[in-house]
Amino acid sequence: MIGLVCAILISILGTFTVLQITDFVAPRAAQEAPMLAFAHWDVSWRVARYMSGIGNYELIAEVGTSEFPSTFDYNWGYGAPFEDQYDRIGFEATMKVKVQRDAPITFTVGSDDGIQLLIDDEEYISMWYQHGYSTASSTVSLEKGFHTLTLRWFDWYGYARASFSCNAPDIFIYYP
Ligand SMILES: [Ca+2]
What we know:
mainly beta, 12 strands, 14% helix, 6-stranded antiparallel beta sheet, binds calcium ion, 4-stranded antiparallel beta sheet, Jelly Rolls
């Protein structure tokens, strides 16, 4: 491929020097170096419903997808969190992070209404009921390496807000 590019360049720009062609090729080599990854949330927006028989809320059919940055505070107020979905809307989001040092990490979530935080499928925070915006934190010791965070959130009606932060932002930037 490089040879073809060089040949085309030479044929088109016959008077260019070899030095200039070398300059053109050099950035390609740089691109092959390991690239930093920036963690983000993959978000699956879902319809929320209340299961009266078991007295619980659950997220059902997916209505769309989007991405959130690694930390966020979305205060939708009375607006629609997703497209024209004002009420009975929720999401399930996952994010891969990399713990790079031995130190407890404090995760903080906030919600109106319900929210749950799971790490590697284990629940660490649950406020899975209707309530005004409030926050909760959990301090966790995780082994070095990759972990998967999961957030589940819903708004039943009225005001809507969701937030996530942590005190170790280095887990969001890593070489894959
Ligand atoms: Ca609400």
